[in-house]
Amino acid sequence: MSRSSFDRAGLALMFSTILVWAGSWIAMKLVVSYIGPFDFVALRYVAGSLVLFALAIATRRPLAMPPWKLTLLIGLTQTAGFQGFVQTALVTGGVGKVSLMAYTMPFWVILFAWGLLRERPTARHGLGIGLAAVGLVCFVEPWNGLGDIRPVALGLGSGLSWGVGTVLSKRMFERHAPDVMTFTAWQMLLGGLAMAPLAFLVPQMPAQWGWQLWTGMVYIVLIATAAGWLLWLQVVRRVPASIAGLSSLGVPVVAMLFAWALLSERPTPAELGGMVLILAGIWVVSRAAPAPRAG
């Protein structure tokens, strides 16, 4: 098969991954009426990890846990923190607003990589962060009163947690080079189990296990979590990193379009302007050269 055929296949896989992950935002919004956010996160990631462990066994991958302290920290931030903030935000916030705030993750990665990995930001990183900051102001519209800012704050918290987990994951791969599938399964399992005490202790609505919740959980666990992760592995193998990284633009855009079409979430002109600026900032950051390490 020619290189162009591989490239076309890789791009097709990337667009499929974007559609699958964007669809998961609609599914997550729809299930909030049937299950509490902490119950959802615990069930999603414990079940998703079991699927990945089954795949690891089927493909004869190593099952030993990577260094447990770092794996636990990543599970607490990248899985429990990220998804806990997201699902709580979706109780009252719209898909477009929350997904865009979650995908501010690249900006948090820059800041935490500076502090933890000594990767000094470049001028281009600063430009991207500046565009996103202006976009966030437009998105929140403080001149109209802050209103219900809780979903925006929780969405930003999810992006921050995801950013910390990403930086810690980078440290894990640099120092220990674990098997990707095994590492993902362990950090998902630990993150899901970490949410279990909150699921028991924090008052939530009782789960209503009708066809709506079952359908949503099957999509989220099997398609968005397990199949989406496997699709992404193929994308990383086939598509240059600079192009694959642009999926961070595609998922919130497609999620917003889905929410507009399926949930009647129509953004205001100021919100649209803010979205454009934030996405422009993400694009600038994704195209920037790797940050140099201090020292």
From TrEMBL:
Belongs to the EamA transporter family. InterPro entries: AA-Vitamin_Transporters (IPR050638), EamA_dom (IPR000620), EmrE-like (IPR037185). The chain crosses the membrane at residues 12-35, 41-58, 70-92, 98-117, 126-143, 149-168, 180-201, 213-232, 244-263, 269-289. It is a multi-pass membrane protein. Pfam families: EamA. Residues 9-138, 152-286 form the EamA domain. Its main location: membrane. Gene3D superfamilies: 1.10.3730.20. SUPFAM superfamilies: Multidrug resistance efflux transporter EmrE. It is found in: Membrane. This is DMT family transporter. Keywords: Membrane, Transmembrane, Transmembrane helix. It comes from the Bacteria.
